[in-house]
Amino acid sequence: MALPWDFRPLHGERVTLDLLCEDDFEPLYEMQSDPEVCRFLLYEPRSREKVAEVLARDAGAGRLDKPDDFVQPAIRDEDGRFVGTMYFHLQSVEDRTAEIGWILHPSAVGKGYATEAARLLLDVAFDEIGLHRVYAELDPRNDASVAMCLRLGMRHEAHFVEHMWLKDEWSDTGIYAILEREWRGATSRSPNGPSVTA
Predict the structure, then answer these.
(1) How many CB atoms lie within 10 A of CB 170?
(2) Which helix (H) or strand (E) holds 153?
(3) Structural domain boundaries enclosing 149
(4) Where does the N-acetyltransferase domain start and stop, copy by copy (predicted)?
(5) I want to staple 166 with a disulfide (CB 3.0 to 4.6 A). Which of 24, 125, 171, 191 is the partner?
(6) Which bin fits 80, alpha (ψ -120 to 50), beta or left (φ > 0)?
(7) What is the pTM assigned to this prediction?
């Protein structure tokens, strides 16, 4: 694999991925404190103090080198507005595996921003970093994320029933994944690929 890998802005047709910054605090707080946004996430709606802590941590995460390294860039629309975040976590160097995830601001839902942003990261994951497998873990009740995984060409690999005690109830976990060879042959892939700016 081509490690270490240092994050740099990734540009698609309508979205840009870049590192979070202080100016993202208010929209990030709006998103992470919204009960509907947090419904299928691992955490409850966050306080301003917790979001400030998370922002400081994630804004400084810009390198993938060893297991558990992650990047969590902002998704920005055509006008540079914050519309959500991506999550990319290096799970194993030996197995060349990473986890991908996403959260959208309520104002940006249904516009295809997360799908385009995920494609940018998957192109980098397979074409540049040299990963073998990328997977997503999600609550199977999250229909929008399930649909997005399928649009990306990911396979439904597993459904763990009552897998964790979360938010005062037993929750299932779904696993979707895609291999490098599947990504290269996927019809859902953008024909032009990403434009990467150093």
Answers:
(1) 10
(2) none
(3) 5-196
(4) 15-182
(5) 171
(6) left
(7) 0.92
At 21, which CATH number? 3.40.630.30
Q: Would you state the structure tokens that stand for residue 7, as one six-digit string?
A: 């994050």
Tokens at 170, concatenated: 């037993």
Q: What type of residue is 194?
A: P
Structure tokens at 135: 């997977």
Torsional sign, CA 188, 175, 1, 65 = positive
Each residue's pLDDT, cut to its tens digit, for the chain (198 residues) gives 999 999 999 999 999 999 999 999 999 999 999 999 999 999 999 999 999 999 999 999 999 999 999 999 999 999 999 999 999 999 999 999 999 999 999 999 999 999 999 999 999 999 999 999 999 999 999 999 999 999 999 999 999 999 999 999 999 999 999 999 999 997 444 444 444 433
Q: Are the CB atoms for 188 and 152 separated by under 8 Å?
A: yes
